[in-house]
Amino acid sequence: MKLVILALIPLILSIGLAPATSFGNIFGTPKTQMENGVANEDVLCRVGFDLMLRSNGNIACVQPSSSTRLVDLGWEILAEDSPVLSELNVVEKTVEIDGLTVSYKEGGSPDSPVILLLHGFPTSSHMFRNLIPALEDEFYLVAPDMIGYGKSSMPSTDEWEYTFDNQAEIINKFTEELGLTEYSMYVMDYGAPVGYRIFAEHPERVQAFIIQNGNAYEEGLETFWDDWKVWWNDKTPENEAKLHYLVAPDTTKWQYTFGMRNPNSVDQSPCITDIAGLQRDGNVGVQLAMAYDYRTNLPLYPQWQEQFREHDPPALIVWGANDYIFPESGAHPYERDLSNVEKYILDTGHFALENDLDFIAEKISSFLN
């Protein structure tokens, strides 16, 4: 029996290594390995990554697509493609902000460049569960749950005013609590108007944007938004009732499958997690309050566009072309106001990370490096 088990070990390892490109190193980040006494040249990266010595003397695991560019900037390749059997490595923490608990996921070393990940509706930081370990060797990634979402506090609508202004204020204070003075910002869906409010207040802190199906232009609000606009202009119970479908389980399932390549293969865990969150007592009121307050974003579009032109942050756009909520038409206008844009229109739906995690992670790595 022992001989059989020993004979199977190489097979098990070879199978285990195949899908490991999207998960974190069991030995930790390069910084963690070095703190544990591992020599520079012996630090291990995840499958498919190159171990590089930075010009400042630190170590990083880098996508091969970025290696040549970084060599030109003074980096040195210590080892190519250092395969390691991997596991998901995401830490969950909480902080208290204005009497509210903000739950967040993080990965990577705080000494690395920071990416602030802002989720959309009706999800949470769970949408970044795979992106964080995919990039943690190169970046420090922080994904907070907005108030009323995920594991953060969910006060009633009588106890807290659910607005995009208030959500942005909490996230801004959250970044200050963590000491994040400079960061790139990944914005998606509701995360876009939250992030752009923070950018308008502190443009000096935002080094770059990764924009994924998040709107800042009227062109991106098409048929899906017709009933919303009627309700915003005429807040009657009858018009509100037309929006109650937003919190229905079938709507959440639709968000995760519509426009996706091979919808039956999409991971069900985020959909199940989101449905559970929506079914909490009082959460329907939370979501309707946020949906009604979305109207406040449109008058701010010209201000955000002016901020784009004035500060001109680099922007990587990775947009699901088949998204009915935020269609492709919302992706292109950014190029009117930003001069340094790298854009990819992907054959996927609203939650593009569920189809194109590896592609998006590689583009983020290359773009930010």
What does this structure look like?
The protein is an alpha/beta fold and 369 residues long. The protein has two domains: 17-79, no CATH class; 91-368, Rossmann fold (3-Layer(aba) Sandwich), CATH 3.40.50. The chain has helices spanning 2-17, 30-35, 64-72, 131-135, 164-177, 191-201, 226-233, 237-241, 249-257, 269-278, 283-293, 301-311, 334-337, 353-368, and strands at residues 50-53, 59-62, 76-79, 91-97, 100-107, 114-118, 140-144, 183-187, 206-211, 315-320, 341-346. The strands form two sheets. An eight-stranded mixed beta sheet has the order 4-5-7-6-8-9-10-11, with helices on both faces. Strands 2-1-3 form a three-stranded antiparallel beta sheet. A hairpin with a 2-residue loop joins β4 (91-97) and β5 (100-107). The longest helix is centred in the N-terminal third of the chain and has 16 residues, at 2-17. The relative contact order is 0.12.
Distance between the termini: 50 Å
CATH fold label of the largest domain: Rossmann fold
Question: Could you name the CATH class of the largest domain?
Answer: Alpha Beta
* Domain count: 2
The best one-word shape is globular
Please state how the strands of the largest beta sheet are arranged side by side: 4-5-7-6-8-9-10-11
Q: Poorly predicted ranges (pLDDT <50, ≥5 residues)?
A: 1-27, 83-88
Major β-sheet profile: 8 strands, mixed
Count the DSSP helices: 14
- CATH homologous superfamily of the largest domain? Alpha/Beta hydrolase fold, catalytic domain
Structural class: alpha/beta
- The radius of gyration over CA amounts to 21 Å
Q: What's the quaternary structure here?
A: single chain
From N to C, what is the helix and strand string? HHEEHEEEEHEHEHEHHHHHHEHEH
The total of beta strands comes to 11
Please give the share of residues in helix: 25-40%
Average residue pLDDT: 87
